Amino acid sequence: MRLRKRHLSLVAVLGVAVAVLPALASSAPTPAVEAVVAGSEGIYTKFAWSPAEVMAESGGAVAFSTGSTTEPHGIVWKSGPSTPACGSSVPVGEGHFSSHWSGSCTFAVAGTYRYYCSYHGESMSGTVSVSAAGTTTTTTTSPSPTTTSPTTSTPTPTPAPVVNAKTMRARKLAKALRVCRKKPRGKRAACVRRAHRRFGTPKGK
User: Fold this and answer.
1) What DSSP designation does 204 have?
2) Apex CA 188: angle with CA 183 and CA 194, to 5°?
3) Selection from 62, 73, 89 nearest residue 37 by Cα
4) Which residues contact residue 151 at a Cβ distance below 8 angstroms, ignoring those fewer than 6 apart?
């Protein structure tokens, strides 16, 4: 009888432990990424995502925001095993951007996701590394094989991403022209000419 009571007590303790483990896993902090000022280039301000690389578990979320910047930002998912599910407050896709927003994106599939700002282009990029739930990333060293087998297939190289330079120049020109409009009237024309010389469409394009 005494042995049976001990057995029941052990089962009860194990049941409590199993119930507590999911609660502890779900309380993991959500990684946060925000837009920050990364420096300047002449009259132009450079922006970046901070931190540029974050880690999360599959099924988890990452919080994104424009931070303390007043510049418009948005997210374009460049690559990854699937498309993250983002909240309605997060502007996602080419041509979608706004100021003063915050929201989160959920990652259902493990893998590496690369993204960039829809307003500032690939110069403002970031990475989210998603691991399988309940696993940790480890590095192991495999012993060297004693024999080698000849390979008959050649891996197909991954094509380099196409960067639309014309779109980037147009965005920079529009930004420069906005700066020119804020200058005194006597200096606007010269500012506009400089902007067109620097970011206008090159001849023959």
Assistant:
1) T
2) 110
3) 73
4) none
Query: Other C-beta atoms within 10 Å of 128: how many?
Result: 23
**CA 128 – CA 112 distance, rounded (Å):** 6
- From the list 156, 178, 169, the residue with the least C-alpha distance to 198 is 169
Q: What global pTM score does this model have?
A: 0.54
Q: Write the Ramachandran bin of 8: left for phi over 0, alpha for psi from -120 to 50, otherwise beta.
A: alpha
d(CA 36, CA 48): 5
Distances (CA, A) of 81 to 103, 130, 193: 21, 10, 45
Encode pLDDT of 115-141 as tens digits. 999 999 999 999 999 999 766 444 344
pLDDT, tens digit, for every residue of 147-203? 555 555 666 666 555 556 777 778 888 888 888 888 888 888 888 888 788 877 554
Tokens 């920050």 locate to: 36
